[in-house]
Every structure is written in structure tokens, then in C-alpha cells.
Amino acid sequence: MSHAYRLVVSCPDRVGIVSRVSTFIAEQGGWITEANQHSDLGAGRFFMRYEINPESIGLSAEELSKHFAPIGEEFGMQWRVHDTATKMRVVLMVSKDSHCLVDLLHRWQSGDLDCDIPCVISNHDDMRSLVEWHGIPFHHVPVDKHDKTPAFAEVERLVEAAQADCIVLARYMQIIPPTLCERYAGRLINIHHSFLPSFVGAKPYHQAFGRGVKLIGATCHYVTEELDAGPIIEQDIHRVTHCHTAEDLVRLGRDVEQKALARGLRWHLEDRVLIHGNKTIVFA
Amino acid sequence: MSHAYRLVVSCPDRVGIVSRVSTFIAEQGGWITEANQHSDLGAGRFFMRYEINPESIGLSAEELSKHFAPIGEEFGMQWRVHDTATKMRVVLMVSKDSHCLVDLLHRWQSGDLDCDIPCVISNHDDMRSLVEWHGIPFHHVPVDKHDKTPAFAEVERLVEAAQADCIVLARYMQIIPPTLCERYAGRLINIHHSFLPSFVGAKPYHQAFGRGVKLIGATCHYVTEELDAGPIIEQDIHRVTHCHTAEDLVRLGRDVEQKALARGLRWHLEDRVLIHGNKTIVFA
Amino acid sequence: MSHAYRLVVSCPDRVGIVSRVSTFIAEQGGWITEANQHSDLGAGRFFMRYEINPESIGLSAEELSKHFAPIGEEFGMQWRVHDTATKMRVVLMVSKDSHCLVDLLHRWQSGDLDCDIPCVISNHDDMRSLVEWHGIPFHHVPVDKHDKTPAFAEVERLVEAAQADCIVLARYMQIIPPTLCERYAGRLINIHHSFLPSFVGAKPYHQAFGRGVKLIGATCHYVTEELDAGPIIEQDIHRVTHCHTAEDLVRLGRDVEQKALARGLRWHLEDRVLIHGNKTIVFA
Amino acid sequence: MSHAYRLVVSCPDRVGIVSRVSTFIAEQGGWITEANQHSDLGAGRFFMRYEINPESIGLSAEELSKHFAPIGEEFGMQWRVHDTATKMRVVLMVSKDSHCLVDLLHRWQSGDLDCDIPCVISNHDDMRSLVEWHGIPFHHVPVDKHDKTPAFAEVERLVEAAQADCIVLARYMQIIPPTLCERYAGRLINIHHSFLPSFVGAKPYHQAFGRGVKLIGATCHYVTEELDAGPIIEQDIHRVTHCHTAEDLVRLGRDVEQKALARGLRWHLEDRVLIHGNKTIVFA
């Protein structure tokens, strides 16, 4: 199967949704290769994700969408059809720490991460050589700490020009302005280097060291206006002991950050993450 | 919701299964509160599990089964409807190690494990007081190592008399005879104290110690005639170091065994485990 | 080896400590079976723990202490010698949740937890039968929420009468008064059902559910006056998903609490935990 | 501290070793910044590792070794002093899978892995550009499957010319000839893509898939003549489900391999791994 259609749905829960949707797919001859569903009984909301073999169905993604639209309307659905033949365009943003960037670029290069990376943006020039070796344009946009507005205007311009579907803050150590957060709501992914909600803000490993925790963590989440408070996609941890200095925590944490970010991004790219309020449904 | 219906299906994969089943449920007014599906693309087989609110559907489990039967026939399904109002009857078997038994009895007593325990059978008398304190009958069936046949005839008689739906070997250190394995195929659960397929057979922790592994494990699996080779339900591990003796591994392993067995049994009781060949689908 | 001497030392770091201590032990013919050391380079403090075979050394623990005292003085040490022949006396306190209690009692009964349990104290009467089945006295001390003073006076009296070396709050859902915290500083162990410092205070699993975390945790720590802020001994986590309700988190968390508390207590009983400020050194 | 001396000792256990060694260090004014010891009571063998601040001691590593030699002789020690100012020289060997190589090169480049990498050797030419971008010589040594002798003669020549202290098989998919195993015994590190001793040999993820395991793993170990049977340094695992194909296991396993290899190599470079028979003591 060279590509797939993905139908992702979220709507008020009621009897007959699966019947209606699955019968529609069956009527087109559609072969569902993967199906996930979730009923949030507390919130009364239903979520589903179908992966469909396009060869089994005599329709383009646009046609499928057009045919599906009345059902979406009938059930009050938020829904989308995504043809994986169209790769998502992911802009990476980074500061001076290279570990998440190296990891994502390698996954992209080896075909493990199914997306296009139109460019990398950084407030420092350090990663230029690495990025360009991968054949990806690199934009150095310095941030003046007394007036960040021009820098973020330029970032926004570059992201627009790149036609980004998604922005990944791969250890980009600047706070994103609210306008950008809002514009890319649900498409702006950050890796925070703590086990949220512990240790919000700056130097979380040093905060963790000060508190004497026995596990450190990292959190991949969507960015919202409130700092480090957006919907969590993935978290992971690593065990530490009294032997480890704050610098050791920084070092050990890098591996956790890499993995949590890579998993979170992968799930996002595969349309496995649905946002509901400040939480996520992850059909992993 | 005081109880639930669970519809569990396994059949050759083809277009329209979900449509047919979900439409049938919708036609009865059935509210699906949890749904899991899996297509094994390699094996061409489809698996599903629906949890349905009985109050939404004006049918008893027997009536629901009767109505569903033609669909089962049409699609060549293995299927069952289980009304959770009817608790599964689980016979526990144990030798001298108490940790899994204590854990399961406590989960049962606190309502965490939704089953009846008609009796506990052991080849030793050590656990009698513990079991009887829980108000559960205890049967001591000594096993003569020169002739195990009478003991297992008695075990089989007791299990039959208890109308067991499921047998759990909670560290019962005897090999189960093939007839019993066959009779309770897919309903006879063991906890093996290694990370299978490593360290099959006796004294796995001592084998692990001898090999110098850095992680020990436990495996919850269905018992088949071939020793420690049946379908795996759940596995877990614990980190060890050069500081740990073989006895330490035994001790640390107990916690892993408890958890892996409790999780595996819970999933079995919740109809979340489907067997296919020598593997399991676990809708956890 | 039927028992062991444990020498535990904490002092300002400088050249020659190990030489002085190990030479002293060697001069007595002492065979060190386990040795742990840690230099906190930031704090300039040194920590060590020796486990010594008593048969190799012709001295009682008291005599060993007496001979060691001048070294302790010379180096400004906090130190103690513990003969494991004298078991620590551990009072357990519990409310209505039984999982940690059952786990600790079973470990104690099976000889896995090397201590005496002179009594169990609870603000409810629910656990009486369980505790008494283990042959341990049970004290029901109801807490009047309008005036908790009499209850805690009684608790303190019982703990004193039991000659407790250590108090374990095995899900005792009351805040301990400052006087008791101070009196048993470094000997009063709690299990908090969150991954601290996240979710301090009441209903942490519901807080975690509200925040949409992907991992839940538990923290074993020494109690200090400030709620859930004392030195952390051990933490552990369990993965959760969008499928889990707040009640599921409560259930899944129980296993994590059991394990974190049991490990923390074991290390405490084995003199493996040294407190320094608000942190612990754990020679596990 | 710009560098450190590391004294690593293994000898028959007896009373007075620590006293003798630590007193020797103290007499030189040596400040021990990290100390690890282990007594294998079963084997009657003692292991230790001291990290010493060179500025506290008025001796070169050579002088320190010379002064220490009589103690080594007296106690029948295997011992070495390593001055970390002299970096170990690590030759990497790789086939076509890049994930471990990329990870190690990045750790080396960012200063996280304290060694020199004089060259990378591969039986394929695919990694040349990546390696050379890091400024490291790349040697393509094709292996003729009908006669591997010339290739391994060339490998041995290159390793010798590189004055390698250590060889790392970072997914080098060829069996190393016995002579090379022997020559670099205890200095030849492999990452095997299974949780050993399960799934020795070829295609371990496919073996794991076939067996239906619920956890996959990777094992970092020293290479000996017997395939995948040498002393284990580190192991790690990742949870998998029925949803994962064999190809998914391969993909998920890459992260585990990276981490297990990186940790194992780091510990080796930091003189934290002592070999005893077919096991390791890891002072991590």
C-alpha cells in the first residue's frame, strides 16, 4: 500500500455513529486497515480514527471528503480526511542544544518520520552546518531580548512561506508569542524538559535537582498561551540517584526528551492525536 | 451501569464487518461504551470487542446472542456475548509461595478483580489459613512425585465441581498434564518467573543470575502442552545489578510476577484477550 | 551470617576519612561485606555505609561503637552502628485503603521485611480483622475533625508505648501534627499518591486526571512539617492513557504506591537512606 | 577538575584491602571524589574503583602506578590506573543501519562521550558522507561472504594502525573472527538487538514477533567467541503490542539499541565495567 486515507472524527456521543460511518465506508468498498475509537463517557464525546486502503475505494481523498460531508454535518462532527500521499510540512525550531534536532533529522532522513521539513529556524547560527548537510534550508533569526517582536514577525513570515502544517520546538528556548500560539493551535509542538506539571519554566533539571527527585522526565505537548500548560501528548522518565549532579540530569534528560518528542511528533503526523479541551486522545 | 454486555469477535478479515456488526447493535439501540478492533494484515484476520450498555438495548444476553448468530455464521466468526452480571469462576492453584495468592485474594476481596473464586487448590497445606480467612474453601491435594495421576484426577474433579471458567496457576510448581491443558485451553493461566522465551523450566532466576542479565522478568501466559511455550498475555521486568544475589532476584521477581499475573488475569476476565495461534491480541 | 553490623557515617568531606575508618575496621579484623560511599562535591559532605560480618570482629555492637567514637569525634561525624540482630520496631498507620497495609504485612510475615511491627494504628476500624489475623495488635483511634488534638495525643502515646523506631503512614489520610513530625524526624515515612512535586495535597489522581498526564506516580518520602515536601526516598510511575478514568488512575496507582513504599521502607530498615538537608542519599 | 585518575582493582577478597588502598591514597594526599566497591561473596572476589583528583596528589599517573605496584602484588590484584587526560581511542564498525552510528557520533561531537574516534570501518560505503562530515576517516572494507579472511585481516590492520583501545560494533552485521575476539577481549563491544539470552543470532525482532512477546529488548555486551554469549553490560526494553508488525519492532528497537549501546560504551570509557568470568560488575 503506497499511501492511505485517514479519517479522523470527533463528535458528541450517541448511538449509531460507528454504524453510520462504517457503513458509509463499506458502501464505497473501503477496506479499513486500522480502526480506533474512544468514548469519553464523562464528557459525552466520541472520537475515532480509521485508516483506509485507497485502492479499495474508487475515490480521491477530495471525493471521499465530499461524500462524507453530509454525515459530518448530521452528527455535528469535527472531522478531516488526510491522504498520506500528501506529506505534512514540519518546520523545526531550535536554539543551541542539538540532541532533539539531530534525532529528528536522522529519523526524517532514514524515512522513519513521514513528513517534509521545508526549513529549520534558529535564534543562533550554530546548527547551520548540520541542517544544511541534510539538504534543508536553515534560517538564522536572532532574537533581541529587548524587543522580540521583529524576530517573531520574521519567524511567522518564514513559517508562512514554508506553508507549514506543523511547527516543532525542538528545544527552542524562547517563549512563543500568543498570536503564533493561536494561529498554530494544535499544530505547535514543544518538548519541555520536565515531568509536567512539575518544574514549569526555566532550568527544570536544576529545579528537579534542588527538590531531590528520584525520576526526571520530559513532556511533549501542544503549546498554548499559558507557559508549559498545553495538552500533553507524551511523557517519559529516567531514574536518577544521589550520585547525579544537576549537569548529569541535563545529560540524562536529553535521551528522554529525544524519545518523548519523536514519539509525540510521529503520532501527530500519523493523525493519532486528537485534542479535547486541555487533554489529548492518543490512538497509539 | 450495573453490568455490561461484551461482544467479542474473531473472523477472516473482509470489507463490511464493522458496518454489519455496528449497524446490528445500533438497530437494537445499543450504546457502545468501549470498542476495540484489530486487523492482522499478515494473517488476514479481524478481531473486535464491543462493550455495550445493556440498559440501552431491550434484550437479555441470550436474546442478543440469538439475534447475532446469523451474522456470526455469515462472516465465519468465532464469537461470544458475555454478560458481566455473570461473574467468571476462577480456581486458583498454588504451592508454597504466597505472594501471587495474597495479591490476587486482596484484589478479589477489595472488589478490584471482578470474579468469583470458588476454591483454592494446593499441593501443600501451608496456605489454608490465609485462604480460609478470606472465606474461600481450600483443598489440599498432595502430589506424589512417583505417580501424579491420582492427584491430577482429584484436581480435575475439584475444578469440575467448582464449575471453573478459568484456572490460574499462581505459582503452582507442578507441570499440568496434557489432558487438563487441552480441556482448559485458553482458560488456564500461568505466571512464569522469567522473561520468556529466556529461561524456560526450573529455577529461572538462578539461570538468569548465572547468565548475568541486567533485567529480570516475568511472563503471564496461557498454558499449553509444551512447557512455558503458550501464548503470552503480559510481561514485565525489573532492573538488577551485580549487587544482587540469586536470592535477591527471587525476591525482586516476586513483585514483577504479582503485577504481570494480576494484569493478565484482569484482562482475561474483562474479555480483552483474544488468542490467535500462539499469540494474543490484548485490547488493554 | 545470622546478623550484621552496619556503620553509617556522614561528615564534612576531607582527605583520609576512608583510610581512617577502613583501617580501624581492618585492625579489628572486620570483614566488610558491603561498602557504599558518596562524596557530595557541591555540599562538601561525605557519606558512607559499611556492612560488617560480626563474626570477623571480636566485639559487640556497643564495644564497636565505643571504640569508634574517637574517630567520629575527630572527623565531626554523624554516625551510628546498628546490629541487625536488634530489629527496628515499625508502627504502621492506615485509614481505609488496604493495599499498602496488605502488602507490608505480607512482606513482614514472609520474612521479606526485617522488622518488628508492634502495632497498627488506624482512624477507622475496617482493618482490624486483617491486622489481628497476622497476630498484630490493632488500635482504632478515631480522629474528630473539629479537634484532632486528643486523637494525636493518643497516637503519640501508642507509638511511645510501642517503642517505635519508625512510623509508616501506609495511606493514613490525616495530616500529622508538627510535634510528631519533629519528634520522629527522619523516621516518619509516608507514601504520597503522586509524582511529587506535582499534585501536592488531596485527591492527586483526580488532579492528574484533570491535567491529562500520561504517567501517574507515587512518592515515598520522609514527613516534615510542610505538606508533601519532605526528603524523597523513592518514586515510581505507571503509564496511563486517555482510556483511563480518574477511578482507573486510583486503581493503577495502588500498585505503584505499594512498590514505592515497600522499597523505601526496606531501604530505611537496611540503613541505606541518609538524609542531607531536604534530600536523601540512598545506597540501594 | 580538568582530568582525573581512575584506579580500578579486582582481587581475591580478604580483610584489609580497602584499608591498604585508601591509606596509600591518603598518604599521597589523594582526594577520592568517587568510590565504588563490591564483594562477590559467592566468588570470594573483591572489586573497586576510585576516582581521584590529580591536583590533590603530587604524582603523574605513571608515578602513581609505580608506587601502587607493590600493593597490587601483595594482594594478587588485577589493577590499572587510568589518567582521563589520555582519551581512549574507539574504532566504530557499522554496516548499513545508521541509528547507533548517528547517536554515538553526535554524543562524541557534543563532548558527551569522552573518547577519540580515530576511524569508522564499514563493510558498506553508505555511511561515508555522514562520518566524513564529522571529520572522521571512513574505511570501506567489503566482506566477501565466500572468503572473509582478507577483509578481517584488513580490519585488524586498520584497528592496529588506529591504535584502538576499544572496538564498538554499532550494528556491524558480521560475525567477528575468534582471533580478533581474543585480541580485543574485554574491549570489543556489541549491541545485540534482542533481550539476551532470548533470540540469539539473525533477525531477532522477527523471532520476537513470531513468539508474540510483549516486550522487546536490546543487549550491550562484550564479544566473545561464542555468538551473543559474552558478558552483558547493559540491557533495556520497550513495550510492544499486537498492533506492531515485525517491521514496527525493528523500528521501535532502534531507540532501545541506541540507548543501551550508548550507556554501555559510556560506562566502559569511564572504567566502570569490570569483567568477572562471563559477568560484569558495573559501577554505574
Automatic annotation (TrEMBL), chains A, B, C, D:
<dbReference type="Pfam" id="PF01842">
    <property type="entry name" value="ACT"/>
</dbReference>
<comment type="similarity">
    <text>Belongs to the PurU family.</text>
</comment>
<dbReference type="InterPro" id="IPR045865">
    <property type="entry name" value="ACT-like_dom_sf"/>
</dbReference>
<dbReference type="GO" id="GO:0006189">
    <property type="term" value="P:'de novo' IMP biosynthetic process"/>
</dbReference>
<dbReference type="GO" id="GO:0008864">
    <property type="term" value="F:formyltetrahydrofolate deformylase activity"/>
</dbReference>
<dbReference type="InterPro" id="IPR002912">
    <property type="entry name" value="ACT_dom"/>
</dbReference>
<keyword id="KW-0378">Hydrolase</keyword>
<comment type="pathway">
    <text>Purine metabolism; IMP biosynthesis via de novo pathway; formate from 10-formyl-5,6,7,8-tetrahydrofolate: step 1/1.</text>
</comment>
<protein>
    <recommendedName>
        <fullName>Formyltetrahydrofolate deformylase</fullName>
        <ecNumber>3.5.1.10</ecNumber>
    </recommendedName>
</protein>
<comment type="function">
    <text>Catalyzes the hydrolysis of 10-formyltetrahydrofolate (formyl-FH4) to formate and tetrahydrofolate (FH4).</text>
</comment>
<dbReference type="GO" id="GO:0006730">
    <property type="term" value="P:one-carbon metabolic process"/>
</dbReference>
<feature type="active site">
    <location>
        <position position="228"/>
    </location>
</feature>
<dbReference type="InterPro" id="IPR004810">
    <property type="entry name" value="PurU"/>
</dbReference>
<dbReference type="Pfam" id="PF00551">
    <property type="entry name" value="Formyl_trans_N"/>
</dbReference>
<dbReference type="InterPro" id="IPR041729">
    <property type="entry name" value="Formyl-FH4-Hydrolase_C"/>
</dbReference>
<keyword id="KW-0554">One-carbon metabolism</keyword>
<dbReference type="InterPro" id="IPR002376">
    <property type="entry name" value="Formyl_transf_N"/>
</dbReference>
<dbReference type="InterPro" id="IPR044074">
    <property type="entry name" value="PurU_ACT"/>
</dbReference>
<keyword id="KW-0658">Purine biosynthesis</keyword>
<feature type="domain" description="ACT">
    <location>
        <begin position="6"/>
        <end position="89"/>
    </location>
</feature>
<dbReference type="InterPro" id="IPR036477">
    <property type="entry name" value="Formyl_transf_N_sf"/>
</dbReference>
